[in-house]
Write a structure and sequence with these properties.
The complex is a heterodimer of chains A (81) and B (187). Chain A has one domain (7-76): Arc Repressor Mutant, subunit A (Orthogonal Bundle). Chain A is built from five helices and no strands. In chain A, 75% of the residues lie in helices and 0% in strands. Chain B is mainly alpha-helical and 187 residues long. Chain B has two domains: 1-102, RNA polymerase sigma factor, region 2, helix turn helix motif (Rna Polymerase Sigma Factor, Chain: A); 113-187, Orthogonal Bundle (Arc Repressor Mutant, subunit A). Chain B has helices spanning 6-15, 19-30, 33-49, 60-80, 88-92, 107-111, 114-123, 126-137, 142-149, 153-177. Chain B is elongated and about 60 Å long. The termini of chain B are far apart. Classes of the chains: A mainly alpha (81), B mainly alpha (187). The A-B interface holds A 15-16, 19, 21, 42-43, 46, 49-51, 53-64, 67-68, 70-72, 74-76, 78-81 and B 3-8, 11-12, 16, 19-20, 22-24, 27-28, 37, 40-41, 44-45, 48, 100-101, 103, 106, 109, 112, 114, 117-118, 121, 132-133, 135-139, 141-142, 157, 160-161, 164, 167-168. The complex binds zinc ion (ZN).
């Protein structure tokens, strides 16, 4: 199968690529592989969407205002000034 | 008099922007809202007490999360008698995930809910849960997470990889059981 080494490398680097933890040069090589390889593109796209869903699911919570106000009171109550 | 001292003002400037983050992480750690609020409160008060040890200009969120994590590990977790270390064998018993190709129309993403995803995150063992939360929900870098956990970057990466595999397997198994995606066809 042609390009199998490229596929292995690309998939091995996928996690770091999605986290933007590769050097620009390596990231570009990985992206170029996904551009020309349909199975790897589908794989990468699934991982990317999965991570996007995960982030969206978890980022909805906000510190309750009541707790924020209570913390501010405690911080300022400890202020010696 | 509402005037506050420079020390308090600096503390508020560094810490208050991270309250949402601390609260979210505390909820995922404790899996319980009242305990999460206690954990955030304890973390902020400890941070205030140790504010003089914070190096100005260094990473405030990593510093705060380190305090939160230490507080959780030393108290809350012990109280729940949660396993402290990973069982590598149990972690390897990950079911094979269905082929992505079995979901050509994207039914999985169309139907999966935030509640189902968060339930799966909360079902992960603590050590897996925390890397997923810090990396994939809060967007922290490998280096930041390594700092918070006090482990090498390589450990963070391998733990994250296995945590995601497990999370995906869990959610895809659910999707298969709901008939949204087909299981992998043998051969
Ligand atoms: Zn490929």
């Amino acid at each position: 199968m042609s390009g199998s080494t490229g596929c292995r490398e690309a998939i091995a680097l996928l996690e770091d690529w999605l986290k933007a933890e590769l050097t620009p040069e390596v990231a570009e090589q990985v992206r170029a592989h996904f551009d020309r390889c349909r199975p790897c593109f589908r794989h990468a796209e699934f991982e990317r969407r999965f991570l996007a869903e995960l982030e969206a699911a978890g980022r909805g919570d906000r510190c309750p205002e009541r707790l924020r106000a209570e913390l501010l009171r405690e911080i300022r109550g400890a202020d010696p000034a | 008099m509402t005037e506050i001292g420079a020390r308090t003002r600096d503390f508020e400037t560094a810490v208050l922007p991270h309250l949402d983050l601390l609260y979210r992480v505390a909820r995922r750690y404790t899996r319980d809202t009242p305990r999460a609020e206690d954990l955030v409160q304890e973390t902020v008060l400890k941070a205030l007490a140790h504010w003089d040890s914070f190096r100005p200009g260094s990473n405030a969120r990593a510093w705060l999360l380190t305090i939160l994590r230490n507080t959780f590990v030393s108290g809350y977790r012990k109280a729940r008698r949660e396993a402290v270390s990973l069982d590598p064998e149990a972690l390897d018993r990950v079911s094979t995930r269905p082929e992505v190709a079995a979901d050509p129309s994207g039914e999985f993403f169309a139907r999966i809910t935030d509640e189902r995803i968060l339930a799966a995150v909360e079902a992960l063992p603590h050590d897996f849960r925390e890397v997923v939360v810090l990396s994939d929900i809060e967007g922290m870098s490998y280096a930041e997470i390594a700092q918070v956990l006090g482990v090498p970057v390589g450990t963070v990466k391998s733990r994250l990889f296995r945590a995601r595999q497990r999370l995906q397997a869990e959610l895809l198994d659910y999707a298969v059981s709901m008939g949204w995606v087909r299981p992998r066809v043998a051969g």
